[in-house]
Amino acid sequence: MVFRSREDRARAATDNRVSDGVPPGMRIAAAWSWRLLVVAGLIALLGFLIVQLRLIVIPFLIAVVLSALLVPFCNWLQRHRWPRGLAVAVTELGVIAVVAGLITLVVQQVRSGAPALQAKSIERYDDLKALLLDSPLHLTEQDINEYVAELVKAVQADTSALVTGALDVGSTAGHVLAGILLVLFSTLFLLLDGRRIFRWVTRLFPRRAQRAVIGGGEAGWATLTTFVKVQIFVAFVDAVGIGLGAWILGLFFGGFPLVIPIAVAVFLGAFIPVVGAVLTGALAVFVALVYFGPIPALIMLGIVILVQQIEGHVLQPLVMGTAVKIHPLAVVLAVAAGGFIAGIPGAFFAVPVVAVLNVVVGYIARGEWRSNPHPSAEDVT
CA 61, CA 12: separation in Å to the nearest integer? Predict the structure, then answer.
């Protein structure tokens, strides 16, 4: 049947909806349901591919984060008339030198302090066991050993997913070495030809969508660059605060051991927002407890809490909140979900992924690519 007017077509559509007995609300719910199922299926397929290719995906994501940090410095060298190849080489070699120096320093500190820490730990454990045996709890040595074994088993069970994770970077030295090489080569080529690679990716999309993809990609890159710089600043404040507190505490109690490894651990742990610096700060509390006793350990705990309060009430709302534009609750949930799904890599990449997706989706959905096709860092913060 051919309808001559819009009113006839609308009347026929209404008659069809009434005749099949399906309410309009159910039709809308069904339409949304199958679309959501398609999106969920695509996300599940993407997650499956990431798990299967984890030995490639994780080093590449690390390289992307490093590139977001190094591109401004590399561009600064080029603006000062450095050749592009030389600027990239100096930038990457500088990062390798810094990382190698930190690893060497930490290894030397740990090797010199680990034997004394082990001996002190055994001594404190014996003191605690003797205290429990003489307490009114009427515990026997067998009871204490069983409780300790159960505690160790519970800790291992709870942290196994976090330590290994669904996206473990590899369990052998060969996997680790291959991952390091992939990070170095990926970072090198992203610094050299990152813009050309991005242009090639955008050409895979339909021509009408390329303008939005280019703008969204630039908005996401600006967000990632800002996030990395701000996160390094926050991690530096955490490491200096806790490390300086441990050093000052050691002045009053005869020297705090492993200050530098603790500060480095806090710096690296701070890249997992909210929980990373707390867990690594607990290491400083444990060392203070083992070496000096309960009172210094409580003081060290107060220092860790003070630094975390400064981060949580000053740095995160004023600095990090501006950089990532997501609510602190979303940060906590993203870190928890990432850690549960993919262990340490998932917790590490959760916040930057959520921040970038939030900016890219919002930029494209609002149609900002029509009026602002090349957003800068100021436009997304």
Answer: 54
Position 247, amino acid: W
Find the helix packing angle between 84-133 and 54-79, rounded to 10°: 130
Compute, in degrees rounded to 10, the torsion defined by CA atoms 217, 222, 226, 227. -10
Tokens 């997501």 belong to residue: 326
Encode pLDDT of 58-92 as tens digits: 889 999 999 988 988 888 998 888 998 899 899 98
Q: Show the 3-state SS of 23-58.
A: CHHHHHHHHHHHHHHHHHHHHHHHHHHHHHCHHHHH
Measured CA to CA in angstroms, residue 345 lies from 207, 217, 267 at distances of 35, 23, 16
Task: State residue 129's pLDDT score.
Answer: 76
Q: Any residues with CB less than 8 A from the CB of 320 and at least 6 apart, and which?
A: 227, 230, 231, 234, 273
Instruction: Tell me the residue type at 375.
Output: P
For residue 159, what are its two tokens?
């942290």
How many angstroms from the chain centroid is the CA of residue 95? 20
Residue ranges per structural domain of the chain: 59-380
Helices (H), 134-254: 141-163, 173-202, 207-253
What lies within 8 Å, CB to CB, of 351 at 6+ separation is 227, 273, 324, 326, 331, 334, 335
Chain mean position to CA 346:
7
Mean pLDDT by runs of 10 across the 381 residues of the chain is: 55 54 78 88 84 84 90 89 89 89 83 77 77 74 76 64 47 73 90 88 88 89 87 87 88 78 85 74 85 86 87 69 69 79 80 87 85 68 55
pLDDT at 353: 87
HSE (CB half, 13 Å, CA atoms) of 168? 12
From the CB of residue 277, how many other CB atoms can be counted at a distance below 10 Å? 28
Roughly how many angstroms between the first and final C-alpha of the chain, as a whole number? 56
For 36, 65, 154, 359, 381, the CA distances from 220, given in Å and listed in that order, are 24, 12, 40, 6, 11
Based on its alpha-carbon atoms, the radius of gyration of the chain, rounded to whole angstroms, reads 27
